[in-house]
């Protein structure tokens, strides 16, 4: 029960998973705190957060659960089957362009496994929803999670042929301020400014251009559709090499580099032994990313399969 509360981030969500009442879960945690004489959670009106002592107790609890699973498997004489439900946190672009096309082969290999995908890359959402694995674009906060870097997104400035025929092709970053810019912003944030300052590098030359706000949205897919429709040009890291190969989008200022592309990583919990469904998906996900975009038009692959990094901060 304690591990489930830590994973879900609330008594109510843990209770729903365990098919008991929230008050029963709260009472059990309070009783355990009294027995151990330590506070396990910092409690707020919105979320629970583990204390240092609580994190250690949960770590040992996971270890105990994993050992019990090993014992049950050994006693039954059967190899652990891949079944049950796997919960995955994944941003829409990664799901749509990398995971979904490869998913049928994974489903045929493990027909008893049910998959629940949640449209998020947030570490907080991973804990709140009880996701087993999480794809993250960008920096990774300090945590008890294992972080496996997969690739780096390549920033680029793109526009449709329709837009370029009407407005012309910029020859230098300084000309972008005269164009209709489609600007991305942080999801669900009213305090973070839109990403309207675009950096460029060419040998020793550096340029930073502040573009106008002809359209601002936190919806990456909507931004892509707007660009395809000829609404303007945009700078983004995307997962759509087919759009470039087909000529639906044109990469601009190709002699320039765009520093600071975000990293795509896979996050999962640190356990003595991963459940078979989790380890199977990790292997599948790494292979799916490895074979995606072999020409590296939109991402830069890791040159070799990296070892996982524990508790890494971005």
How would you describe this protein?
- The protein is built from ten helices and 16 strands.
- By secondary structure, it is of the alpha/beta class.
- The protein has three domains: 2-76, Winged helix-like DNA-binding domain superfamily/Winged helix DNA-binding domain (Arc Repressor Mutant, subunit A, Orthogonal Bundle), CATH 1.10.10; 84-153 and 262-310, D-Maltodextrin-Binding Protein, domain 2; 155-252, Periplasmic binding protein-like II (D-Maltodextrin-Binding Protein, domain 2, 3-Layer(aba) Sandwich), CATH 3.40.190.
- The strands form four sheets. Strands 3, 4, 5, 6, 14, 15 and 16 form a seven-stranded mixed β-sheet that branches. A five-stranded mixed β-sheet has the order 11-8-12-7-13.
- Strand 3 (84-89), helix 5 and strand 4 (113-118) form a beta-alpha-beta unit.
- It is elongated, with a radius of gyration of 23 Å.
- The mean pLDDT is 82.
What is the level-2 CATH architecture name of the largest domain? 3-Layer(aba) Sandwich
Beta fraction of the residues?
Answer: 15-25%
End-to-end Cα distance, whole Å, is: 31 Å
Task: Provide the helix percentage.
Answer: 25-40%
Q: What fold name stands as the CATH topology of the largest domain?
A: D-Maltodextrin-Binding Protein, domain 2
Quick one: overall form?
elongated
Q: Main β-sheet, in a few words? A: 7 strands, mixed
């Amino acid at each position: 029960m304690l591990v489930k509360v830590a994973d879900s981030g609330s008594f109510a969500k843990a209770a729903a998973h365990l098919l008991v009442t929230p008050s029963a879960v709260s009472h059990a945690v309070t009783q355990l705190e009294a027995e151990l004489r330590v506070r396990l959670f910092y409690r707020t009106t919105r979320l629970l957060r583990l204390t240092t002592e609580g994190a250690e107790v949960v770590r040992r609890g996971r270890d105990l659960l994993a050992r019990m699973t090993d014992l049950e498997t050994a006693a039954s004489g059967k190899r652990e089957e891949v079944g049950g439900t796997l919960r995955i946190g994944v941003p829409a672009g990664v799901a749509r362009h990398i995971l979904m096309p490869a998913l049928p082969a994974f489903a045929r290999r493990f027909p008893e496994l049910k998959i629940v995908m949640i449209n998020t890359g947030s570490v907080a959402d991973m804990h709140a929803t009880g996701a087993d694995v999480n794809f993250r674009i960008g920096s990774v906060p300090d945590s008890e999670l294992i972080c496996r870097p997969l690739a780096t997104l390549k920033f680029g400035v793109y526009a449709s042929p329709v837009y370029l025929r009407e407005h012309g092709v910029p020859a230098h970053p300084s000309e972008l301020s005269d164009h209709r810019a489609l600007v991305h912003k942080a999801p669900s944030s009213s305090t973070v400014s839109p990403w309207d300052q675009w950096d460029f590098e060419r040998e020793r030359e550096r340029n930073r251009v502040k573009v106008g706000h002809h359209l601002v949205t936190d919806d990456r897919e909507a931004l892509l559709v707007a660009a395809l429709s000829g609404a303007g040009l945009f700078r983004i890291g995307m997962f759509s090499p087919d759009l470039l190969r087909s000529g639906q989008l044109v990469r601009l200022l190709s002699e320039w580099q765009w520093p600071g592309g975000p990293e795509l990583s896979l996050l999962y919990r640190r356990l003595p032994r991963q459940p078979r469904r989790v380890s199977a998906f990790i292997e599948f996900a790494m292979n799916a990313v490895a074979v995606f975009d072999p020409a590296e038009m939109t991402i830069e692959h890791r040159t070799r399969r990296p070892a996982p990094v524990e508790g890494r901060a971005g």
